[in-house]
Protein 1
Amino acid sequence: MEQLETEFTQAMGDMTKYDPYMAYNMGFVTEDLDYYIKAFDAGAVPYFASTWTDEGTQLKYNSVIVQVPGSLAAGAKSLLNVQLLALSSAIFDGRAELHQHTSPQASPAALATALERLASAPRKLSLEGKPVLVSTHRSFASSDVARDASYFQNNLQGSKDFEKTTAEGTTYGGRMQSIDQVEFLYVESAFDTQGPVSVAEWEAYQVNLHDTCFDSGNNEGFDRLADNHGGHPIETFELDPFIKAQQQAGLPYRFYGGMGRAAFFYMYGPNGWGIQIIGACTDSALCPSGAGGYDMCTQGITGHCRKDGASDILA
């Protein structure tokens, strides 16, 4: 993990140059971006600052991306980036060197939904006085947007909201269900990373690790990147279509938790990232014979990652 976090951090650089790895982020909209810019500046937290104009509304948006701390490796941070978006920033208006995106950093539909939620929020500040944040998207860098869009629509049962190609690359956005307020984004950059591992190589590493460690037929196996996933309860509460699609694609998956009304189905895509689907497995031909457990003393740690080894019990 420390090596992966070090390589991810190298891709971020000093946050002055856009890198494809910055597309790995969780996005939020705020009405007061300057509050957070001042906090980052005061805390010497590096961030990538940018702006872009939405073609449909001609509204100008501002953005900052920060890499969240968390690694044990010297000089490294975590695998998580956060993107904060806003319609205005007095601070950025005075910065001539601000990066100008030609690609949207969030879809018009997701931004409109987030702004409506902000406008109707019961409070504008947190208990600590921080401006409220509203989630807009979970974004992934992609080496192949067409591949990821196909997986999103066929396996995650999602629907496309938009797709845009510019000189910067291609951005695809969609929602798993019509009621969703948070969108999935896949961003295929036209530029190479400044880090030591390309986006395609990072995806392949994750996919190969899951293929090695997951024994989906016997509902066993675990690896250290299996927890890189989002979570989504299903409105219809029926897992069967997701299970069938994953099996047909030959991609890894696992069940945790009780069967029936409270099953947790983990499915992993061709980009290596996963999602936890919460619902009910109703077709006995699809449901595992046992729910499977999660022994943190053994799973992915002792024996082989595909099957737990014996654990040492210390009195």
Note: Residues 2-199 form a domain with the 2,3-Dihydroxybiphenyl 1,2-Dioxygenase; domain 1 fold (CATH 3.10.180.10).
Protein 2
Amino acid sequence: MFPPLVGLLYVPVAVWVATGFGLMVAFQRAAPSVVLRLAAAFLALWALLATTTLVWVLRNGGWSAVLALLRSPLLLFEPQFAGLWLAGAVGAFLVFLIAFCLNQLVGRGFLHLLRPDAMPWPAALPRPTTATSLLFFESDRLEAFSFTLLEPFDGHSLRPHRHEMILVSHGLRERLEGAELEAAVAHELSHIRGLDGRYLTFLRTLARMMRWDPLLAFLSWSLTRREEFRADYDAARMTRRPLALARALYKVSTSPDARAPRTVTAFLGARGARGRREAVERIRRLVLLADSPEFREDRGAT
């Protein structure tokens, strides 16, 4: 007879598999908010499974327990190990909580160290519907990035609210022409509209915390690449100037900063040689987009 408790332990695995399948289907077709929420759920369940497995292995003999689990994976679902699933859930929650707090601390650290000032919102871009600050900071590097901060209250309500931040360096403002800078800001605005500042930056932080997890690293890279392409397309639609964004990407990707192994040039989506390679692909797509029927009539404005 199949014990009901064992059936309950199988539920997280079944939901995880179903969420993973839904994520694969949505990856190519769905809006970014749907994809990122599915990815967060997928990783939450993955963290539960991984943490529970780790607790089981540590409790049952280390490497010998790993070998036993490889021979009989269903050992985890025996009723006497139900308490380990609870410990795994607590451990997974703590990992996510630490990643969230670290993500928020990094964002606030940027504001504290960079001490940015407000800059005018580009007249040609739509105003965000959520609380959004466009700021610039003193730096010769060609940098632009965005993130989301959770504020405890706004003076009218005790409920926490999100504040979106777009930061642009002085070097980027000086190097880019007006249309190019507008395109760079539109790119970051598209990240905000797609909830990338809420989910993707958090997933990147989690991936950095758990560098040993290849699944998390691959998912973080895949989502980042997808969202950079999508943000480019949305920015081109907002500005009607895909070539302006292509020129901005070219200038940033060929700057000395882009060759450095450590930089916060999130506008490139990645750092170092990989960032430059992906910038080439993004520029190629933008040039093809400018030649498409959707944008061909606007070529004179670029």
Note: The chain has two domains: 4-102, 116-301.
Protein 3
Amino acid sequence: MSPIAEVLLTCWRELRRNLRSAKGIVMGVLFLLGGSAASLIYAAVMELATRTTGIDEVIPDEAIRSMREEIWSKVWMSESIGGYLAASPSVLIALFKGTLWFVPFITLLIGFDQVSGDLQHRTIRYTAIRARRESIIAGKSLAIWGVVSTLLLGLHAFVWIITIVRGNGTLAEVASWGPRIWALTVVYSAAYSGLTILVSSLTKRPVISLFLGLIWFSTLWVIDLAVSFAKAAETERYWIQYIGYAIPDYYDAWLVTPKAPQMIGGMVILLTFGIAATALASWIVRRRDI
């Protein structure tokens, strides 16, 4: 059997197992709850903004676009990005930004035991007879990515419907921006799917894998915050921003830039993160005594 066929078979088996499991159902519910919470918060903010202008007064489209541009320019510290995202319903961009915060940890919760669980119970020795270890690891990594992408699609589709029903965006706007924003979150999650499978391959204890992953991903989150603060402050420690190139979180602004080469470059870098981490996990498992 070819390596590609082994990867696809492993991926399909893990996809079915995860999506049918109680853990997959719980994660789906959490995603929907997160989406509904984001929609309700956004609706409350918009209602408050409307009341400040008068109950019967309608905010002009130009004023709304200007407000969006100002907000997103400050969030991403780029006027070009702010102007680009101003054309999208704000709830979709807020969902994208919020998704970037919790995707790493949701991905970890889904996949922390994918390899360590098999190593602990030695079930990998049976599948390793029928398939290459590298194919097994690659298939598991691809399955984690598939599960996260599916859950993200459910979450985003839910928010699309709420956005249209509440009149926070037109059908044309949601159809134009919704799938685009979802696709960018999928690309972003590829990096953490690879990092999750790498964490899972480091130990034979799933609990330890989860603990290590929480420490690692939290550290990346703190580094990203430090880089953002240093960039905003523009102090003599501005050099710290260059540390950001080593973490996936740094490239979220690249995904939403109107500059096509930079956007494509960010997507390629994030996919490379996932591929490199999966390759390293395969090397570790190949050298491990199972």
Note: The two ends are 22 Å apart (CA to CA).
Protein 4
Amino acid sequence: MKQLVKIYQKYNNFFHINWFITNKCNFSCEYCHPFNYANTSPKFDINVYKNFIHRILNQIGNKQLIISFTGGEPTSLDWFDEFLDFLIENNVKIGLTSNGSKSIKWWERYRKAFDWVSLSFHAEKSNISHFINIIDTIWSHSLVSVRVMMHPKDEYFKKGITLYKTLKTKPFITVFSVEKVIIIDDWLTDDEKYHVYTSEQKRELHDDDFFYKRQTGTPEKSLYEYKMPIDVSGIYQTDDGRFNEQIELNTNLLASSNENRFYKWKCFGGIEHLHINDRGEIWPTACLQGNMIGNIKNDFTLPKDPLICEKAFCYCATDIIISKHKDFENEKI
């Protein structure tokens, strides 16, 4: 038997910001919580965001700043293009979660801007051919993943299946993943639960729910450059007290195997990672452990000491990749 005792950056020197930048969205999907498209987020001036980036860069030293944008729909913000241009000029690595609704012209303009793009397909609103055209546009420049949101209504469910099967036959020469995503009913309430699909839908879901392509070829970036810049390593302790290392720790498997239990561990949220919500509040982690650090519109100081995790499980993928370890006494790990 072995037990995970440490997650850390072995080959990286990054500072990651997970940024829920707005609850404005041009979609209003039936299964989505209304907050995600309510458009009630404060309207900050673009210079507030730019000044915040300057403050972060001044405090993190020689670390590589990486920002993962989510929402809402980040690209629906009027000033988002200007902010992207600013980040590119300042050598910030960028990841984007998007519904893919922007025009192909927009994606052509910014296809080199993103290190990775996570595209969510919403069958109520999304167009299959447009969605595939986006992937055709960006695949040779970004790591691409697709989340097919499996709408319970049969017509939309079948539309999602059609996209999934079409993408599986496309000869993209890239690192590329596609998954079917089960809808959560009553999301963000005390009654949230996975949707119960019909028997036929269940067969479609579980017969083939994920695929991953890693093909050789000659894209503009090498396969090595497609590696996620936020990969982490893990240290395991065996029953006899020895420590073994696992390079490129699979954080999704940690969650599925219930290894995401870090209660009372030291967590480096705030030291190498921040979560920012749509109100501009700065937190060390997405699960809001520790104290709020400040707001993007004001001066702030990043913490120097790790926080102690008080949660039984770590559910957020961006929180799992934060360096953390058991608080061993008199032992080096």
Note: The helical segments are 46-60, 80-89, 104-110, 128-138, 154-169, 199-207, 251-256, 317-320.
